[in-house]
Design goal:
By secondary structure, the chain is of the alpha/beta class. The N and C termini lie far apart (46 Å). Strands 3-2-1-4-5 form a five-stranded parallel β-sheet, sandwiched between helices. Strand 7 and strand 8 form a beta hairpin. Helix 7 packs across helix 8 and helix 10 runs antiparallel to helix 11. The longest helix has 16 residues. The protein binds adenosine monophosphate (AMP). The site of adenosine monophosphate (AMP) has 17 residues, from helix 2 and strand 4.
Length: 301
């Protein structure tokens, strides 16, 4: 992967990179299209990164559709696809690079899962202090350490000029931006808007876990965000009041369990008291056992 990417860059091409965990939908494809528009060569990666999942999370059942993903990426004209094995991304202590290369595509997407949940060993981590413990990082200890570490590894493999991320994962965006700044990485981070279903549900690979009833209930996340936006547009600046109204909307859907509903600075993820200077309204909630996230940005007054 590194030599293919280097060859492109040596030929004077601008390289765009879209990291994903696969099970692709229009949200992912919007990043690919943004990369296509801004760069000469587009690389995507598909890697279900075990180190960003907690021990009781959905790593084993995370949706995988590698062959369909390849077709979608091909249709979008993606030139290079990086789909490493867990062994390649997290080499064993003896330096071996994991399983051989001639396995089926489905196994290649996450070979360890066929034999249970082997978790990689790793002594070196990228930890973005402070930010990693906020929002999703508070609910999912170790999640952003896994994210920052794998994104650093992917950046190292691909060496992109620009990397494309979705606003859908707003806390992830803050963590990656800070990592890039703190480690002086020469990659431009481009953030693309949230792609939604027609009824407002933010697209997510995890929406596949929802049954029809849960799918309807899940709309409460977006409804709560819209309520906050409406009040903010009507002039309410007090974050506590806005939060109360958003949380009330969520509470109205009794089967949905709120994880967090917060109004924070989009760069530091610290709570703000007043929304005058541009803030992120972020929500995470469980619909059944499925944890969904969504957010909106409120512009400065
Ligand atoms: P994932 O495969 O969930 O790790 O997501 C890969 C990238 O796609 C991340 O940068 C996500 O923020 C982005 N993404 C996921 N869902 C959406 C969406 N609905 N709209 C825009 N970007 C998204």
């Amino acid at each position: 992967m590194r030599s293919a990417c280097r060859a492109a860059r040596y030929a004077g091409k601008r390289l765009g990179f879209v990291p994903t965990m696969g099970a692709l939908h229009e949200g992912h494809l919007s990043l690919v299209r943004a990369a296509r528009a801004a760069c000469d060569i587009v690389t995507a990666s598909i890697f279900v990164n075990p180190t960003q999942f907690g021990p009781n999370e959905d790593l084993a059942k995370y949706p995988r559709s590698f062959e369909r993903d390849c077709e979608l990426l091909e249709r979008e004209g993606v030139e290079l696809l990086f789909a490493p094995t867990v062994g390649e991304m997290y080499p064993a202590a003896d330096g071996s690079a994991g399983p051989p290369q001639d396995q089926s595509l489905a196994d290649r997407a996450c070979p360890e899962l066929a034999e249970g949940s082997v978790r990689p060993t790793q002594n070196t981590w990228v930890t973005v202090e402070g930010l990693s413990d906020r929002l999703d990082g508070r609910s999912r200890p170790g999640h952003f350490r896994g994210v920052a570490t794998v994104v650093a590894k992917l950046f190292h493999a691909v060496e992109p000029d620009a990397a494309f991320f979705g606003q859908k994962d707003a806390a992830q965006v803050a963590v990656i931006r800070r990592m890039v700044r703190d480690l002086n990485l020469a990659v431009k981070i481009v953030v693309c808007p949230i792609v939604r279903e027609a009824d407002g549900l933010a697209m997510s690979s995890r929406n596949a876990y929802l049954d029809a009833e849960q799918r309807k209930r899940a709309l409460v996340l977006h409804r709560a965000l819209l309520r906050v936006q409406e009040l903010a547009e009507a002039g309410e600046r007090d974050a506590a009041k806005l939060l109360a109204s958003g949380r009330e909307v969520i509470a109205g859907e009794s089967s949905v369990r709120l994880d967090y509903f917060e109004i924070v600075d989009p760069d530091t993820l610290e709570p703000v008291a007043d929304i005058s200077s541009g803030t992120l309204v972020a929500v995470a909630a469980f619909v059944g056992t499925t944890r969904l996230i969504d957010n909106i940005l409120l512009r400065s007054a």
